[in-house]
Amino acid sequence: MKILRIFTIILATLICGNIFAQESQKELEQISKNHGEYYFSLPVQKPAEIQTISRFCSVDAFDGQTVTCYANHEQYQSLLKHGYQPTLMMPPSLQFKVEMWDGSDRANYDWDAYPTYEAYEAMMYQFGTDHPDKCEILTLGTLASGRKILVARLNNGQPEGKPKFLYTSTIHGDETTGWIMMLRLIDYLLENPDEPEVQEVMDNIDLYVGPNTNPDGTYHGGNNTVNGARRGNANNIDMNRNYPDPHGSAHPDGNEYQLETQWFMQLAEENAFVMGANYHGGSEVMNYPWDNTYTLHADDDWYQLVCHEYADLTHEVNPNYMSDFNNGITNGAQWYMIGGGRQDYMNGYRQCREVTIE
């Protein structure tokens, strides 16, 4: 009787746990539906499966056994119809509440909160107003939401003949770490003119910095908060799948080029950038070309060298940061393949040596 009683308790516990899991998935499905974006994991038996999964959603990360993905409502329903059984997770931007700053004077901002959209725009234009000899704020375009794609151009006032470098971040609206880093970079370069490293950059490079290239995704929850930020833009398009692909097709995601995509392609066409870096989030690794073919780049050794230089420098600050993969670096396709990424577009079509910094 005692054994039977124990068995009954175990069985009841398992049943209750299963019912709770089902209820939790139902709740997450409703949350995701309201959010307009689904965040989930899928087990993967072999890396080649990722290419098939990518037809239905945007793969965000792969740990060797499981992929983490995003999908809009139509993509998610298609995934279910094809027999996949995703495990929904709480969207990252809904997992906790963040502090916001709504000031108008950069001098009162201590980098301890996310700026509201109005504060972000004001901060960018203030950089140009306070340092007109070193900083020009470019407005690539204004979206239907009224939000702008802004890029700071930084140099010592004499950009002619200098190599052009492009830093951008937050092409995925909920990957916001690089956005704040780019704002701090602009601020540091403008406010510390006597630092030798600042002089080196400003005197020898024509630097373009776009801190947030997807403001509609970041402020999906409204201009006053980044809670509720989404990966996609206002049309729920993953813009890191929206570029022409040198190893694929002109429209690998099947969507028209979004305004944000068009504006950055125009920027790259008008400026011969020699090198670039695009900041993402979610993992800790330097990702170098190619993303959509296993064929190694002709300058694969060079890419590994510069990526290791970056990763090795972070190890001096924190030996545990960027410590996975090949000691902090990875070839994009060998991690997982994607089509329509910004990195392959810039390298393949614009001859710009761009890497992706996760």
Strand content: 15-25%
With strands numbered from the N-terminus, the spatial order across the biggest sheet is 7-8-10-9-11-14-12-13
**Can you summarize the main beta sheet?**
8 strands, mixed
Task: Tell me the number of strands.
Answer: 14
Secondary structure class reads: alpha/beta
Give the CA-based shape.
globular
> What oligomeric state do these chains adopt?
single chain
Give the H and E element order: HEHEEHEEEHEEEHHEHHEEHEHHE
Give the helix proportion (percent range): 25-40%
Mean pLDDT level: 93
Poorly predicted spans: 6-20
Instruction: State the distance separating the first and last CA atoms.
Output: 57 Å
* Rg of Cα set: 22 Å
Tally of helical segments:
11
